[in-house]
Each structure stands twice: as C-alpha cells, then as structure tokens.
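Hi U.,

Before I forget, here's the chain from the pilot set. I'm dumping it here mostly so it's searchable later in email.
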Amino acid sequence: MKKILALSIALGLAACSPKATEAPAGPKTETAAAGPETCIPEGKTRADLDALKAANFEIADDAQRQDFAKAITSCLGSPDPSLRDGIAYEALTHMLRGTQLQPATMKALLVDLQGKLEAPEGAGFIRPFAALALSEVARADRVEAFLSNEELIGLVVKAQNYLINVQDYRGFDPKEGWRHGVAHGSDLLMQLVLNKRIDVEAVDLLLSAIKVQVAPKAHFYVNGESERLARPVLFAASRGALSEAEWSDWLLLLATPGPEIADKVFASNEGLAWKHNTMAFLEALYVNVTLGSDKADDVMLKGLDAALKAVP
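Structure:
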C-alpha cells in the first residue's frame, strides 16, 4: 500500500487532534447541544473521565468497557474540545484499535453514529465527530470484518450522503477546537475505499462525493481539507477503480470551471476560491503520485498533468 508523502498520514489515522478508565453505566439522555458536562455518562464525573484518560482509557471489566464505549458517544457533540476530542473520540479510538470492543458493541456504535450523522447540527460538532468516530468503526471492520455486507453498503451510502451535504466548512477555532466536517468525512471515505469487501462500483460512489467537495462555492480551504480529500482518491487509484482514460476525464472535469464562474475566475471570490481549492487538491494528488512508491496510482499521472495545465 502506498506511502502517502505529502499528507502527514499514518495509514488509518483519522484524527484531527491527539488520542481516549474506570467505567460507567449507560448514557444520559440530554441532547448533544447541551452544556459541556451534560453528556458525561451517568454515575461518573468529569474528574473520573480525566482520570480515565490519564490511565490511557484502560477499563479492566469487559462489561463496563462495552457500556462505556456506547455511552461516551454522547460527548462527541460536546462544545468542550477536551471532552469531545480529547476524551470521547480518543477513548473510542483506543478501544477500537485495541480490539477491546465486542462485535455487538461495534454494531451498536455503527447504528448510533450513523444516526448522529443526520442529527440536528446544533453548534456544528456532532456530525463531523460522528463521521470521525465512524471512520474508526469502518477501520475496525476493514481489519477484521464484523459487519454484514448490507451494513457495510449501508455505511457507504450514509458516508457518501454525509460528505455531499456538508455545508459547515469551519475548521479549527482556538477556543472551540475542531469541527472539520469535510476532512472527517474524507477520513471515513478513506477507510471504506481501503476495505476490499467494497467493490469498485461502491468506490465510484464515494468518489462522486469527493468531487462535490473539492471546490465549495466561495470558501477557501485553509485547514488541510484538500489533502484529506486526496487520500481516498489515491487509494481508489491504487485499487484500480478507474482506467487511465476515466481518471483523465474525472480530473479534467474538476479542472474546468462551471459556467457560473468561467468568465470570472480572477474577478470574484467564488472564482478565486474555486481555483485555490482545485489547485490544492490536484497538487496534493500530483505530489503523492510522482513521489510515492506505489506504481498503481501512476494511472492518474497523465490526467493530472493535463488537469493542472487546464486550470485557468
């Protein structure tokens, strides 16, 4: 598998921020939009969660661990980044990557997190962090399958739909931390593209979602979104998702401004944002294809060369 050079990626590592012990019972019922502390699992305090983090989220009792994993997802919508990202997401990542969760628990997480992808946006945290946590569920299935084919394809559809419909492009805020909806959605798509149980037709479906978010209207990507969008595309190429001619067509279409901005690429924020984002995406692909060690993605090289020259 390709070594991604320009994207600062260790294969499968999806987080925007760092890593997630004793254990609690079930979750509280407050909504994700409530205050920072209301999501804390019943019977626990914030101090308990901080101690759990300090202990590297190790919970000796298996039943308590399964309950905790299912309960802590409520904090993925917390406005407190140290709780949302530093505890909830990190805890789930630690347990999923450490194969500490039972298949029934992981399937429960799948259902819960897919529901959160479509939850009311609130302050804008719950959907992106549900997507990020789902990327870890998808990774766990990629490493050792536990989802049925129907569940896996259902996740493909949910992931595609989520990324296409992201409209909140906020990235990092010094006080509120990350939202990063496009990047987190891209991480989920990457894990799905890497899953050999997903066929080329499904990979094409995911590529269609990426195409939509390469150059959003009048928004300039400044938080690494273009590089994150490039990751699943590189792995799709490695899998032989498209032929050389098909990649050339796909990339050239991206490099062609739509009729609404074709005559004002250099005379409007919409046009300048389109050019900025399109070039960032194409350049991320080009650097990795030309400098990477995986020859399989060289299938994009001709198309990338033509697309980069075609951008106004």
